[in-house]
Amino acid sequence: MKKLLIISSIFLTTLPLYSNIIKIDVSAPIHPVTSEYIRNTIDRADEKESRLIIIILNTPGGLDSSMREIIEKIIASPIPVAAYVSPNSARAASAGFFIGIVCDLFIMAPGTNTGAAHPVGVGITGQPMDETMEEKVTHDAASYIKTLAEKRGRNTRMAEDAVRKSLSYTEKEALDGGLIDFIAEDIGQIIEHFNGKSIKRFNGQEITLRLKGEEVVFIPLSARQKFLLTISNPSLAYILLMIGLLGLYFEFSNPGAILPGVLGGISLLLAIFSFQILPINYVGLILILLAIGLFILEIKVQSFGILAIGGVIAMLIGSIMLIDTPIPELKPSLKVIIPVAVGISIIFLFLAFLAIRAHMQRVHTGKEGLIGEVGTVQKDLEPEGKVFIHGELWNAEADENIPKGAKVEVTEVLSNLKLKVKGIKK
Questions:
Q1: Which one is catalytic: 19, 89, 136, 212?
Q2: pTM of the prediction?
Q3: Domain finish residue from 319, 336, 360
Q4: What 3-state class would DSSP assign to 262?
């Protein structure tokens, strides 16, 4: 019997935990990686029949497409979802505000803020949208937030003002205005406050929260999501792009070097993968590629530095325009862009200088390398004979008779591997 109890105990510990509270931490901009993290968590909570999902939210906002994916998943979630703006000094701005509004529970920690949800869009040139288009987008966002707030029983006027007027609210203002449900120091207070309380789901169904005594299980980002989140850092993605282009340029300039090509190819692929997550301005990317093209042309065309200067300017402008978003956290910092762009430009120009200098130098190998070389006549040139050059005996001819032992200079390499020489006057 004792053995049976031990086996049963071991078996039960291997079973998945059910009826727990799941917690996740979203301290990043809202983009495809954070969207996948939240959506996967909701699916996992459904499988485990959890009591509640708590999203610890600290975000400046993000992409509208990712935000709407998250909202759709929260609305359809069979498990209640709570947004908790935490820790102190955290914020749920822009897309984060929309996510908080749509959750079953919207909670804030002391010293936090939410709102500032006015949509800011940019076109393919990197410039703000025209007034008409911006007005359409704002009306659409305002209508969307009003619908969400109304269904959740929240203050629609405050929600709409956060979009239209870009207002931001402290935790006290949000609670007093009926925008959030509670101010909590920690998750323990959330569990204690809402345990046994009834809430109305988005579909109108009323449920009672049974939270007391439930284990809070933290679900971290998967290894894949951590990797994607790391390389989706805009500054790192930009640096990877520059390293990739530099590596490939060096490989093409010096075929067979291998290592620069391998590192450049890997860096470029990682950068391209990051750009699938980040909002890229393709005009900026084309300008960067144009800059490299101008650097290459500087080698082929003697422009006295004009092409090189154009390349540096195109590199800087393209780098600044590369990430197409008004959210600072989704754009590489100028403190990164300027040093990297200038540094890469200097490296390209240095490599171009070396190539130009190599082209201007006298050739030392092959047929061309023989021209100008000095040798000794081994058999009288009358006008044909033999000369000794570079440790080799060559057939040669001259326009005049030159005796054995005289010094001669190669002026031409003839098609039949015969040298044309001339005598050197002492």
A1: 136
A2: 0.70
A3: 360
A4: helix
